Amino acid sequence: MTKNKNILTDGFNRKHTYLRISLIERCNLRCTYCMPAEGISLTPREHLMRYEEIYEIAKIFVDNGVNKIRLTGGEPFIRKDISFIFEKLASLNVELAITTNGVTINRHIKTLKKNKINNINISLDTLIAEKFKKITRRDDFTKVYNNLLLLVNKGFTVKINAVLIKDFNDNEIIDFINLTKDLPVTFRFIEFMPFDGNKWNKNKLVSQKEILTQVEKYFLKDQLIRLQDAPNDTSKNYKIKGYKGSFAIISSVTNPFCDSCNRLRLTADGKLKNCLFSSTEQDLLTAFRQGNDITPIIQKAVQAKFKTRGGMDTLKKFQNETLHGKNRSMITIGG
Ligand code: SAM
Ligand code: SF4
Question: Which residue, of 13, 71, 115, 276, is most buried by count of CB atoms within 10 Å of its CB?
Fold first, then answer.
């Protein structure tokens, strides 16, 4: 039962109805844009949320107006209790979704179906096996590609996330879009974002403008259709006339979409982040374990949310490593 939707409304009247929960800090891939080559220091297991705690904390958000939860990580499917987590969260009255690298998802089709988790975002940054190995530091292209086809065959709603990096995969943009000719998927191009330890620099970024320039060069003007974006959508959506699928651009760097942000993030160690880019976080898990009411902490965090990108409202600030370096590595946030 909804208690008080107002605690999730921030100072800019943004209503937060979408909670992203990171289930784990570990991963079976090592994507260069997501984590440093030397790895990250892992939080001791006892400081991570157990599945009952994930449920109880998520329930407080749902009671206060959250209607969508996306599970992420690290790689959510390497959590051994993933099916318990699905079951517990499926008992809340929310849309449940997951973001995964897809390496082992074939083993979980039944439990996804059973718990009505139909929206799957799968990450795939290249269609070339050798390049996959380079970017993920693992040789799993075939598994991921086959699993992507499996998900489509099983009737899931599939979005593919590709982080574009200059001179690495920007020459595949048209190939990615052409994949949507016969596959009913949405291919989402994500601008490469700066996080702690990912060696970001602006020259590696492929901007929304550059993506559209390539698209407009290759396709005829009347082939490119601009689709209506859903409310709170982070992406600008397009399709090519006659193609079964669509594509989208997530331009967090060159054209942020903070005005319609409805997201909050809970990390695997139970910290609340009011923005993907915030350098501060609130410790919900410790308070919860001490038996305290965590709603005032949530309320305070929501109220403290900056208007734009955790306060990095200009590209200049965004490029300042001392500012974005205060944030975690992406692998411990979850996207
Ligand atoms: N392991 C899962 C996966 O790869 O989909 C879930 C976690 S991953 C951190 C979530 C999303 O964040 C992925 O789609 C990944 O491509 C994206 N991501 C990671 N680092 C990024 C960066 N520096 N810039 C933009 N997107 C990034
Ligand atoms: Fe793992 Fe996903 Fe990060 Fe790649 S993007 S290292 S798959 S968490």
Answer: 71
